[in-house]
């Protein structure tokens, strides 16, 4: 009997010697996850957005007087608004400056008939040269422009075409539906 009592005592002491393991509390809240804070993006002013749009519109305008009429022709190059899309707008019109001035003094607007030609295409830039490729290469030829940057910046100041005509920054044409 002593032996059975001794075996029972050793078995029970085994549970007391090693102790009890503590069960985790199911009601504990894990520590909060620290979120990475990102700086707020700067809001752009409308004026800045307008300036960004005009940076990619360059115009070359020629005015020529013949008799009493003033003939105006302009070439507008727009590029970079979506992917590699580009467009040239060639327009021409004429008017009598004296009649126009008289009409403005009376509060009238003298309407001029304007001929416009839209040439859609694509562009790419390589080593400070912009190459305009029209969609209809059989009707229009490729045009190359040299990019001239403002001093000490990487902003384009003006463009020069193959004939050394200077294209300065200008206003983009409003989109026209049904082209």
Helices and strands in order, then pairings?
Blueprint: H1 2-18, H2 46-54, E1 57-66, E2 69-79, E3 85-95, H3 97-106, E4 115-126, E5 129-134, E6 143-149, E7 156-160, E8 166-169
Antiparallel strand pairs: 1-2, 1-8, 2-3, 3-4, 4-5, 5-6, 6-7, 7-8
Structure description:
It contains 3 helices and 8 strands; from the N terminus they run ααβββαβββββ. It is an alpha+beta fold. It has a domain at 57-169. The chain has an 8-stranded antiparallel barrel with strand order 1-2-3-4-5-6-7-8. Strand 5 (129-134) and strand 6 (143-149) form a beta hairpin. The longest helix has 17 residues, at 2-18. It is rod-shaped, with a radius of gyration of 38 Å.
Number of strands: 8
Shape, please?
A: rod-shaped
State the helical fraction: 10-25%
Given as residue ranges, the uncertain stretches (5+ residues, pLDDT < 50) are none
Measured by DSSP, the beta-strand proportion falls in 35-45%
- Contiguous helical run count: 3
Q: What is the H/E string?
A: HHEEEHEEEEE
From the alpha-carbon coordinates, what is the Rg to the nearest angstrom? 38 Å
- Walk across the major sheet and give the strand order: 1-2-3-4-5-6-7-8
Tell me the distance between the termini: 110 Å
Category from helices, strands and their pairing: alpha+beta
* Average predicted confidence as pLDDT: 78
| Largest sheet properties | 8 strands, antiparallel, barrel
